[in-house]
Specification:
Length: 253
């Protein structure tokens, strides 16, 4: 069994055992800061809605690996980017050397997921939660949200309208003024830089964000736009069709 063949089962484990959201749980997330891809990742919520990031690094054969120190060396940098970090791979019977590896992971706070010969996953060791900087967490949530979109600016506003509208009202179809959503998503230069680090250069001025949203969603069945005196003050409502496209709130709540 190749390493990549383990990924779908790890994804199912994160969804079913760690309550990760299917739309935010996937494979191979590129992390430019480390110039590498994270094998399996997911976002969950705990403690009344707090967003939690899971990251996993896999090896074809984890235990009895002569280069286990190298494996750990790959995993430790991920602790800056994920609340919980695992190493994963095919396991086996434990010898004294394997037990030493487990003890080392326990000291470092790294979790261990192993597969037996039947493909069953065993959480051999639970990870310890890491303390992630708020700016790093924001960037990781954005990176995961924007991973599969070709229209990132427009999709940020679309999701932002949904999340802002749900926060401010219990109505079935959320609505929000464009400028209010913009001010929440891009409230300071740090937020703008987080977006630019993922999407590439963009001015991210309010009117320059309004234009790509209009191009992508204006005139579609997904939103209804009530024109005001200024385009920045337009009211945007998610329609019933649009509600089929929104995702779990992770940007504003």
């Amino acid at each position: 069994m190749g390493e990549e063949e383990l990924y779908p089962d790890i994804r199912e484990f994160l969804i079913n055992q760690k309550n990760c959201f299917p739309e935010y749980c996937n494979f191979e997330l590129y992390l430019s800061e480390l110039s590498r891809r994270i094998d399996v990742f997911g976002i969950s919520k705990e403690n009344g809605g707090e967003k939690v990031i899971y990251l996993s690094e896999g090896k074809k054969e984890l235990l009895k690996n002569k280069n286990f120190a190298w494996v750990i060396g790959e995993v430790l940098p991920l602790q800056r980017y994920g609340d919980y970090v695992y190493v994963l791979g095919a396991g086996g019977d434990f010898e004294d050397e394997d037990k030493a590896y487990v003890e080392e992971c326990k000291k470092l706070g790294v979790g261990i997921l192993v597969f037996d010969e039947t493909g069953k996953i065993d959480e051999l060791l639970e990870p310890v939660r890491n303390d992630i900087e708020s700016s790093v967490r924001r960037k990781m949530l954005l990176k995961i949200f924007l991973r599969d979109t070709s229209t990132p600016i427009a999709d940020l506003i679309f999701q932002g309208v949904y999340e802002y509208g749900k926060l401010k009202s219990d109505t079935a179809l959320p609505c929000a003024k464009f400028i209010d959503v913009y001010n929440c998503l891009f409230k300071n230069e740090a937020c703008k830089e987080a977006v630019r680090s993922i999407t590439g250069y963009h001015t991210l001025k309010d009117i320059d964000v309004r234009r790509p949203f209009q191009r992508e969603y204006g005139g579609t069945p997904y939103v209804k736009i009530e024109r005001m005196g200024s385009r920045l003050d337009d009211f945007i409502c998610i329609t019933e069709e649009g509600m089929k496209m929104v995702r779990e709130p992770i940007l504003l709540d």
